[in-house]
Amino acid sequence: MVKASTKWEVLARLEQVRKHASEGVVPDRATTVAAYLAWWLDNACGQLKPATLANYRITVSRHVKPYLGAVRLAQLSPAHVRTMLTGLESAGYSANTRRLARSVLRRALGLAERAGLVARNVAALTDGPSVAGTRLDDALDAAQAARVLEVASGDRLVALAALVLTLGLRRGEALGLRWTDVDLDAKTLTVGRTLARVPGQGLVTTSPKTATGARTVPLVGNTATVLREHRRRQAEDHLRAGPAWRENGWVSTTALGMPRTLGTPFAGGTPCANAPAWAGGASTPAGTRRRRCYRTAGCRWRSSLRSSATPRWPSQPTSTPG
C-alpha cells in the first residue's frame, strides 16, 4: 500500500514502485545506512589492505554516520549526501576529507545497487568537492631538506630521513625496508613492501601502494654511506641490547631491533630534540617551519636532484648516545 499526503505524491510513488519492480529492485525499507555500512565493512571489504580498511572504518564512523547513519537505506537521496558534505565543510573538514567520505559512501552504495537493495547510487549522483592538485607550499626546498638532514645526523632516524628525502620513498616504503632489500656495493635498493601500524592489528606489512610501487632505485648522493654508518650503529645497538635484541632484518629499528614506526617514542620515551620535524621531533630545525617533509622528495627536492643539485650531507654522522 502506498501512502502520501497528496494525489500527485501517491502517483509518483506508484510509478517508482513499478520502476523498481521492472528492474528487479527490492528496496530494504528497514535497514539504516549505519547498519548497512557496518555490514559492508565487515563482509564486503576483504580485498582491501588492512590500513585502507582501517581508514574506511574511521571515515564511516567520524564523517558519514553522524550525518546519514539514522537514514533508512531505501530513503537515502542525493539531498542527504549534499547535507553531509555541507555539514563536514561547516565543521571545518578539508576538501580531501569530504571527498573521501563521499568516495567511501559511493563504493558502499555501489554494492547495494548491484544487489538490488537500492534503486540508484545517490552518492554517485552527487557532485563531490573539488580537490586542488599537489601542494608545494608545504614541502621543503633543497636547502631546507639539507638542513633537516644535517640536524638529523646524530639521530637514529637519519637513514630514514635520507631514504625519504633523497630517494622519493613513501614513508611506509622506507619503514618496510629490510637489509636484504639493500645492495650497498651496487648502490641500489628494492622496494617490495610497506609497513604501517593498523588500529587493532599492530604492525602490518603489505605490498606497495601502486602497481608500479615495487621497484629498484639507485642510492644517489651519499645515501649508501649513510646506510653503511646506520648499519654499523645498528650492530652496536645489537651488542648493547644483548639477549633483548630482536633480529628481524629491518633497516629502521628501535634500540632493541623492533621495526620502527614514526609513532614509536625515542629513547627515554620522549621525542629526540634533534629529530626531523616530519618524524614528530620536539623541535623544528632552524630556518624551517613544520611541514610535511615526507612529501618533499615527490615535489621540489626530487626535482632539484634531477636538475643536478647535490644534497649537502654531514661528513660523518655521529653515534646516538646509548
Would you write up a description of this structure?
The chain is mainly alpha-helical and 322 residues long. Among the domains are: 25-114, DNA polymerase, domain 1, CATH 1.10.150; 142-171 and 223-306, no CATH class. Helix content is 41%, strand content 6%. The protein contains ten helices and five strands, in the order H-H-H-H-H-H-H-H-E-E-E-E-E-H-H. The protein has helices at residues 7-23, 33-43, 50-68, 78-90, 95-114, 142-151, 158-167, 171-175, 223-241, 300-306, and strands spanning 182-183, 188-191, 194-198, 202-206, 215-218. Strands 1-2-5 form a three-stranded antiparallel sheet, with no helix packed on it. Helix 2 runs antiparallel to helix 3 (50-68), helix 4 runs antiparallel to helix 5 and helix 7 packs antiparallel against helix 9. The longest helix is centred in the N-terminal third of the chain and has 20 residues, at 95-114. The termini are far apart.
Task: Summarize the model shown.
With 322 residues, the protein is mainly α. Helices cover 41% and strands 6% of the residues.
Give the helix/strand layout:
Elements: H1 7-23, H2 33-43, H3 50-68, H4 78-90, H5 95-114, H6 142-151, H7 158-167, H8 171-175, E1 182-183, E2 188-191, E3 194-198, E4 202-206, E5 215-218, H9 223-241, H10 300-306
Antiparallel strand pairs: 1-2, 2-5, 3-4
Helix pairs in contact: 2-3, 3-4, 3-5, 4-5, 7-9
